[in-house]
Amino acid sequence: SIPVAVPRLKKTAPLIKLNSTDYVLLAFLVIGVILTTSATLMFDLPRPVAGVAYLGLYLALSFRYPALALALTLAVAPFQQSLTGSEEGKGIQIALAEFNVFLTLPAFLLACLLRRSPPKFGPLLLPIGFFFAVCLYSSAMSWRATSALSSLLQMFLYMVITVVVFSSFLKKPEQLKIGLQGLVGVCVVLSVLLIALRTNYVFGLHKNGIGSSLACGLLVNAELWFSETDKKRRTRHILTLVIISLGLVATLSRGSWLSALVGLILIIGLRREYKIMLNLLLLLIPLITVAFVLMPEEDKDYAFDIANTKRWNVQQRVLNSEYARSQFNKNPLTGVGVGLRKEYDATNILWTTLAETGVIGLSAFLLVHLAFLSMVITASRHLPKTDPAFALLPIGAALLFSRLTHGMVDHYWSRGALMLGWAGAGMSVRTYYLAQQYKKKKRGTA
Questions:
Q1: Could you tell me if residue 383 is inside a domain?
Q2: Does the residue 181 lie in any domain?
Q3: How many CB atoms lie within 10 A of CB 386?
Q4: What are phi and psi of 255, to 5 degrees?
Q5: Would you say residue 153 lies in a domain?
Q6: N or C terminus of the chain with fewer C-beta within 10 Å?
Q7: pLDDT, tens digit, 9 for 90 and up, residues 127-173
Q8: Which residues 6+ apart lie within 8 Å of 306 measured at CB?
Q9: How far is CA 14 from CA 1, 18, 174, 198, 315, in A?
Q10: Domain count within the chain
Q11: Position 291 in a domain
């Protein structure tokens, strides 16, 4: 017999390398978080005590392991409970994920100084700057005190800080996948609880809130499955995708279903892998159909009775839109000022933006998204699909536009899922710069 040389398979390089000292330090951090949380619950410690302890632990994590700090931020995004305890819709409210983004700033700014590299905005810099200029002008003309201040800070956190942190903090953009995998894991746990308990409320999370998070988790999971080459990991991604899909159905959040569909269409369009997506749909559609069949009749009626204006939630959304329209009519050009969203149930981002900042503000807001979409399409033409960071491009596009879609039928400026949307925008900005490097290399070799 003739001996045949069998090529060795290359092992996938780890996303982050840790030595023995790193493991010890991480163990101390984990133990510290557990002890702090346990002591707070057992001895009913005031929130500031737990906050100071967590602050120190997270700062240490962000300076020593920035990839893990951002991973934790993405993983806890589904837990949207406010840390400030202020009344819903009033004052400044912040969830754990947003708090983490703030805590990341010192390490992020130091990293930018040491690398002599400014924060990366890409083509989004001018559109976002223009949008904020309109918002500030509108607010100055009709200042709404605390409502305006908290709204502007919230917008700055998402559209500026979150974008630059996720676009510029890490040297290797593929390390962001650690957090994306963590997000998928959390969404799997939430989905299992929803299915097992036959409910759409867990941990005090509203069905639309948890539905938004599961929609994000599903989109991330789908793209990770598309980009995976290892058979075992692909099988694992399929399993988690099925679980999250069933959990998303169980939420009965129709806005989340729609946002997930829009996100999947974007992923398919950017990847152009229609055959693989067809196979996925052939797997998911029968399972989702069975899930609907097994639903209680009351849930089925709620899920499909969309146009029934006798339902309280439908009536409320109609009234909300009419109120926003009446405010828009007062000043169609620049609106009645940022912060109006805190004074009524703002369940349509288009009408809310029109009412607050007028036609100019809505045009600027949509311009940000158009500039983002153009950036993503441009980057997808130059960045090879085989690059480990390519997956961040469709993930970012899917997350941001899924949030925009959901915001047309529900609250847009809300904690948790919106942070994921703008974090996704930051990831896409990072891959845009990587695509520009590939473009320069092609020109150099031409």
A1: yes
A2: yes
A3: 8
A4: -65, -35
A5: yes
A6: N
A7: 999 999 999 999 999 888 888 999 999 999 999 999 999 999 998 88
A8: 254, 314
A9: 39, 10, 10, 38, 52
A10: 1
A11: yes
